[in-house]
């Protein structure tokens, strides 16, 4: 695995931990839920996104910040999951200029060519899948998943995403950029007992990450 | 066929064959090359065509990519701004000259379109443009829509994920086909099969070109599906491809034709060069064959023909030399250097043909006594005599004259006499020239010549005829004991008679046309009849009565005389026997010739005749001429002895004319000698002849022979002969020859000398006088 990617994963984990800390104040009794995500061949579906949406309540919008860097003509991280209302800054770590745009309905924006760190952040105020590109570097691609739940995780190298969820009813959703169609939401009831879930993704067909977003 | 033609034709055909073979090979190679060239062109053309399609694809791809990459365009796509999209597509397509510009969703639904009747919302067969499983840009495909053929390219619009497809395409119409085919120099035909129907193709071929001429094609299948097939066919007219080769072949044909004509001329020239000297050589050979040896061989060359010509010339000289030698042998008499008969006749022919002015006289000269000279003095002397005579005859060399020696003792002469000259005078002059004795080794030798004369054109016109006339004259002179005779027409038995005479003689014997004539021999002293000589006459059915001079010489020449002698012998024996049996026996004499004496069985014939008729041998006398002893004296003597042994009497006829002397007679069993009439007729006037007659009578008596004088015509001669004691006489004075009946009546009442009594034994020869004394009255 790319070491930088693990650094970013750690950052994301930190963000999750912060979120958990924020919510943990009120619900100390959280239940450990692990979700094992595999591809059709049985290999871990690394970077697949797993989220639990509470069915009984709507979580409040968050005002968090996120960073999507541009290093070596790549967006980093490649897949970013944020809560609706999160401000994302796009620093440019390359010595060349980059442009960032999106024609996705959840967030249409375009940044002029720039170098270094822009002053303005982009606020993703609607949930949905945003596909990012660079107008002058066709190969640069990044996904930003804007969600309304604080319970989400990217599948690590081990293949198991771990959650501490307050007991209640949830819809579990899974997304991967290699999917061609959406994976149906699965209803999950979290009780006191730790829960271990498992899901296999069909990643062998035609990829359509936009269509795969619910 | 002439050699010249044969050489020329062979040469010509050879060249023609070589040229034809070369042309055939070149033609075949040309066609092969053209086909291979066309094949190569088609290969290249196919690559060029595919390359052109690829270039189209690249252009389309680049144009489509340019549109798809445009940020504003992407934005328009994101906004689904259909009109903007359509105008942007049209803008990009117009730059390229594209026929189709379409924007579709990833799933092939049309979002925007330009230049066609495709409308947004319609499905687009995008899958046809994409390779299975591939989502790459720039795949090209051939599609058929509304009967038109399009080359299409699809390019993705990414923002940055693929969101749409830009499809751009060219129409493959006639114009496009022409542009595609242009770099290949080939014709391009695009054919479309929809279902099982081939639609009218798009082609760059001129109208009707596909049917005319031979086409070589290469097909490239662009699309092949069950319901659709698109085939591009590149074609090349083989006729067109062959055209440059055809031009080359035409030039070759022209060259071949020219060389053929040239070779024909060369062949004829060469052939003529070879055959002309050959013809000259042939001419030279013709000249040699014709006897013209002085025509030079006019071929001067250094090659084989020259050698042949030289050889021919050498041969010509050799033949000429030999010809002259042969001519000498053929025409000259080696002894005297005179012409021989052949040359003489030729010269005479030439002389006769030369000029008609003046007669040409021919003399045949026969030397008698010559044989005696050879016999008694040797051939050397004889040859010397001949040379002397030849010299005398040629002494004054005369123009238009020639002398020849025809055989041993015969010469011939001809000369051109002045007009009106007398042939006889010329003959007499000749005779006087020969009268001188020939002197050989200081010894004078008398040479008597008999001359026969004839003259052209009086006697005959042709050389051979003239010769025969002279020969007849010579024969006549000899027969008549004359030194000289000219030809008279009466001497000539017609030529046909000459030829048929032998046959007639045979017939005369068979038909009993010969008659016995009797001429009495009488005792001169008493004028009593002592005997008779049997003579022959020919009662010819057409020519009347012929004397012996007409047919006996011919009979002698042909040997037929033997039959005549036997016939006469038999007839005479019969007649003698009749008289003998009638009691009035009369000795009869018949003439016997040389041939008879030469016949070894002649004495047997005589014996049989005597036996058959019962004639007393003593009553038969055989008269033999002196010439009978000349050819073979020994055989003649043998025969005489055999005859004498039979008891017949033997008589020497014509005594004095030949070479026999009385001394010869002493050894012969003869009983009688007859003095030749030439002596008897002249002895009264010429004392020398008288001496010969007298001495002959005396010598004969001394040898015990009876002496008979022939040809007594006058009483005085008879008296004189009686005075000389000549025993018997014969001649017109007493009686001419008579036929039997006349002779018998003449005999009647005549006094006769009694013949010797028949004793049955051989009667010894006795002197005539004694016998005459035993005569008895008739």
Major sheet attributes of chain B: 8 strands, mixed, barrel
What is the topology, as strand order, of the major beta sheet of chain B?
18-19-21-22-23-24-25-26
Structural classification of chain B: alpha+beta
Gap from first CA to last CA of chain A: 28 Å
Task: Find the biggest chain interface.
Answer: A-B, 14 and 11 residues
Describe the main β-sheet of chain A briefly.
4 strands, antiparallel
> Order of strands side by side in the largest beta sheet of chain A?
13-2-15-16
Q: Total number of β-strand segments of chain A?
A: 17
What series of H and E elements makes up the topology of chain A?
Answer: HEEEEEEEEEEEEEEEEEH
Radius of gyration of chain B: 68 Å
Helix content of chain B: 40-55%
Q: Strand fraction band of chain A?
A: 35-45%
Low-confidence spans of chain A: pLDDT under 50, at least 5 residues? 1-7, 9-27
- The pLDDT mean of chain A sits at 84
Question: Could you please describe the fold and organization of this structure?
Answer:
The complex is a heterodimer of chains A (214) and B (778). Chain A has 214 residues and is mainly beta. Chain A has helices spanning 3-24, 209-212; strands spanning 31-39, 49-54, 65-67, 69-71, 74-76, 79-83, 86-89, 101-102, 109-110, 122-124, 128-134, 137-147, 151-154, 160-165, 168-175, 186-190, 195-201. In chain A, the strands form 6 sheets. Chain A has a 4-stranded antiparallel beta sheet with strand order 13-2-15-16. In chain A, strands 14-1-17 form a 3-stranded mixed beta sheet, with no helix packed on it. In chain A, strands 3-7-10 form a 3-stranded mixed beta sheet, with no helix packed on it. The longest helix of chain A has 22 residues, at 3-24. In chain A, 30% of the residues are buried. Chain B is rod-shaped and about 205 Å long. Residues 757-778 of chain B have low confidence and may be disordered. Chain B is built from 23 helices and 27 strands. Classes of the chains: A mainly beta (214), B alpha+beta (778). The A-B interface holds A 101, 103, 108, 131-135, 138-141, 209-210 and B 69, 71, 74-75, 77-78, 158-161, 163.
């Amino acid at each position: 695995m790319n070491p930088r990617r693990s650094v970013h994963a750690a950052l994301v984990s930190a963000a999750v931990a912060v979120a958990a800390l924020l919510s943990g104040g009120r619900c100390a009794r959280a239940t450990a839920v692990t979700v094992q995500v595999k591809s059709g061949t049985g290999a871990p579906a690394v970077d697949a996104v797993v989220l639990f949406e509470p069915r009984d309540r709507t979580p409040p919008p968050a005002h968090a910040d996120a960073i999507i860097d541009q290093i070596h003509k790549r967006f980093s991280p490649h897949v970013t999951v944020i809560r609706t209302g999160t401000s994302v800054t796009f620093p440019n770590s390359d010595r060349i200029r980059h442009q960032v745009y999106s024609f996705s309905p959840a967030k249409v924006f375009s940044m002029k060519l720039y170098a270094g760190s822009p002053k303005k952040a982009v606020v993703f105020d609607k949930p949905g899948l945003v596909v990012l590109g660079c107008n002058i570097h066709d190969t640069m691609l990044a996904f930003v998943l804007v969600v309304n739940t604080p319970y989400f995780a990217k599948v690590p190298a081990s293949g198991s995403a771990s959650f501490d969820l307050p007991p209640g009813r949830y819809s579990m959703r899974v997304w991967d950029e290699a999917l061609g169609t959406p994976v149906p939401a699965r209803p999950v009831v979290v009780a006191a007992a730790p829960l271990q879930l498992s899901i296999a993704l069909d990643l062998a067909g035609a990829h359509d990450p936009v269509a795969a977003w619910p | 066929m002439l050699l010249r033609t044969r050489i020329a034709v062979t040469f010509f055909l050879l060249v023609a064959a070589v040229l034809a073979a070369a042309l055939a090979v070149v033609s075949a190679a040309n066609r092969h090359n053209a086909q291979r060239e066309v094949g190569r062109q088609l290969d290249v053309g196919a690559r060029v065509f595919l390359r052109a399609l690829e270039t189209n694809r690249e252009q389309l791809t680049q144009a489509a990519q340019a549109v798809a990459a445009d940020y504003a365009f992407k934005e328009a796509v994101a906004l689904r701004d259909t009109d903007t999209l359509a105008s942007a597509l049209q803008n990009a397509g117009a730059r390229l000259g594209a026929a189709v510009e379409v924007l579709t969703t990833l799933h092939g639904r049309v979002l925007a379109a330009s230049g066609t009747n495709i409308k947004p919302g319609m499905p687009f067969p995008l899958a046809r443009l994409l390779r299975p499983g591939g989502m790459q840009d720039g795949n090209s495909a051939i599609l058929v829509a509304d009967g038109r053929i399009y080359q299409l390219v699809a390019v993705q619009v990414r923002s940055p994920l693929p969101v749409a497809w830009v499809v751009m395409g060219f129409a493959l119409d006639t114009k496009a086909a022409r542009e595609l085919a242009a770099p290949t120099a080939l014709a391009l035909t695009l054919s479309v099969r929809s279902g099982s129907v081939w639609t009218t193709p798009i082609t760059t071929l001129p109208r009707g070109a596909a049917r005319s001429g031979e086409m070589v094609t290469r097909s490239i299948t662009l699309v092949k599906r069950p319901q659709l097939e698109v085939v591009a066919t590149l074609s090349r007219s083989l006729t067109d491809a062959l055209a440059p080769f055809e031009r080359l072949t035409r030039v070759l044909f022209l060259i071949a034709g020219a060389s053929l004509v040239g070779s024909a001329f060369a062949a004829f020239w060469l052939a003529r060069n070879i055959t002309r000297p050959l013809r000259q050589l042939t001419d030279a050979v013709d000249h040699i064959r014709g006897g013209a040896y002085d025509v030079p061989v006019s071929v001067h060359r250094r090659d084989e023909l020259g050698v042949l010509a030289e050889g021919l010339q050498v041969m010509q000289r050799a033949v000429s030399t030999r010809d002259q030698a042969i001519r000498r042998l053929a025409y000259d008499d080696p002894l005297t250097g005179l012409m021989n008969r052949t040359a003489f006749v030729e010269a005479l022919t030439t002389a006769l043909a030369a000029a008609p002015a003046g007669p040409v006289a021919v003399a045949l000269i026969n030397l008698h006594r010559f044989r005696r000279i050879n016999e008694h003095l040797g051939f050397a002397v004889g040859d010397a005599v001949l040379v002397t005579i030849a010299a005398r005859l040629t002494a004054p060399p005369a123009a238009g004259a020639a002398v020849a020696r025809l055989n041993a003792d015969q010469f011939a002469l001809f000369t051109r006499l002045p007009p009106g000259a007398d042939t006889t005078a010329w003959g007499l002059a000749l005779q006087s020239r020969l009268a001188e004795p020939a002197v050989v080794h200081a010894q004078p030798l008398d040479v008597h010549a008999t001359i026969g004369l004839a003259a052209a054109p009086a006697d005959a016109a042709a050389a051979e005829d003239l010769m025969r006339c002279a020969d007849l004259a010579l024969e006549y002179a000899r027969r008549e004991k004359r030194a000289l005779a000219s030809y008279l027409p009466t001497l000539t038995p017609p030529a046909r008679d000459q030829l048929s005479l032998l046959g007639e003689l045979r017939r005369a014997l068979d038909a009993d046309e010969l008659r016995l004539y009797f001429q009495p021999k009488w005792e001169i002293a008493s004028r009593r009849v002592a005997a008779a000589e049997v003579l022959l006459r020919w009662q010819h059915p057409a020519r009347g009565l012929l004397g012996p001079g007409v047919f006996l010489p011919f009979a002698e020449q042909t040997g037929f005389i033997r039959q005549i002698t036997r016939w006469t012998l038999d007839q005479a024996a019969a007649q003698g026997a009749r008289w003998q049996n009638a009691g009035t026996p009369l000795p009869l004499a018949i003439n016997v010739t040389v041939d008879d004496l030469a016949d070894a069985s002649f004495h047997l014939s005589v014996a049989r005749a005597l036996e058959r008729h019962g004639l007393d041998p003593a009553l038969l006398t055989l008269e033999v001429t002196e010439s009978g002893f000349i050819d073979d004296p020994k055989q003649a003597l043998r025969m005489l002895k055999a005859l004498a042994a039979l008891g017949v009497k033997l008589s020497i006829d014509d005594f004095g004319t030949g070479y026999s002397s009385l001394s010869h007679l002493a050894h012969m069993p003869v009983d009688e000698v007859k003095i030749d009439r030439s002596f008897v007729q002249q002895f009264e006037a010429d004392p020398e002849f008288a001496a010969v007659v007298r001495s002959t009578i005396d010598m004969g008596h001394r040898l015990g022979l009876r002496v008979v004088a022939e040809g007594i015509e006058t009483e005085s001669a008879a008296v004189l002969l009686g005075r000389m004691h000549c025993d018997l006489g014969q001649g017109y004075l007493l009686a001419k020859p008579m036929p039997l009946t006349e002779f018998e009546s003449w005999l009647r009442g005549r006094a006769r000398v009694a013949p010797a009594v028949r004793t049955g034994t051989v009667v010894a020869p006795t002197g005539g006088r004694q016998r005459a004394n035993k005569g008895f009255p008739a």
